[in-house]
Amino acid sequence: MDVTAGYRIRLAAVLLGLVALQALYLALIALVMYLTAAYMAYLMSAELSLNLLTITIYVGPVACGLIATLFLLKPIIIRPRREPEPPVIDPDSEPLLFEFVERLCRIIGAPRPYRIRVDLAPNASAAVDESVGIVSLGGKAGTGK
C-alpha cells in the first residue's frame, strides 16, 4: 500500500499541531510563573502598611499563582499509574467456566481461547492477541487486555 503525499502532509500538519499545543502549554506555565514572580518582586519593593486586609489582598494573587503553577506542572511531573494486569484463570481451577466457554465457541464456530482474563470491567470481549495470533477473552472491549 503506497502512502500518498497528501497523507504525509496531513500527518505532518497533525504532528506540528501537537507540538504547537505542547509549546503553548509550556508557554502558559512560563507566563504564570513570570507573572507571579513579577508581582512578588513588585510587592517586595512597595512600601505597604501590613494589616490583615492588605496581606490578604497582596498575598492572595501570589498564592493563586503558585497553586496554578503547581497544578499546571502536575501532569508533566506526575505520571498516572499503570493498571495491573487482570488475573488469568487456570483451566484446572475453573473447569466449569472453561467448559462453558468451549461449548459456546463450538456453537458459534469461534476458536477456543487458551486463557481467560478476569477484571471488574462491566463488559467482556474477545480479541486477537497480535503477538502470537490467538484469541483471548476478557478485558476492555477491543483491547484484548
Q: Tell me the span between the first and last alpha carbons.
A: 29 Å
Give the low-pLDDT segments. Answer: 132-145
Order of helices and strands: HHEHEEE
Radius of gyration: 28 Å
Strand order of the largest sheet: 1-2
Silhouette: elongated
Tell me the number of strands: 4
Give the structural class: mainly alpha
Proportion in helices: 55-70%
| Number of helical regions | 3
User: What do the pLDDT scores average to?
Assistant: 83
Main β-sheet description: 2 strands, antiparallel
Beta-strand percent range: 5-15%
Describe the structure.
The protein is elongated. The chain has helices spanning about 5-45, 50-75, 95-110, and strands spanning about 90, 115, 125-130, 135. The relative contact order is 0.08. Mean pLDDT is about 85; it is low at about 130-145. The protein is mainly alpha-helical. The strands form two sheets. The protein has a two-stranded antiparallel ribbon with strand order 1-2. It has a two-stranded antiparallel sheet with strand order 3-4. It has three helices and four strands; from the N terminus they run ααβαβββ.
Jot down its keywords.
145 residues, two-stranded antiparallel ribbon, 4 strands, disordered C terminus
Summarize the structure.
The chain has 145 residues and is mainly alpha-helical.
Question: What layout of secondary structure does this protein have?
Answer:
Blueprint: H1 5-45, H2 52-77, E1 88-89, H3 95-108, E2 116-117, E3 126-129, E4 134-137
Antiparallel strand pairs: 1-2, 3-4
Helix pairs in contact: 1-2
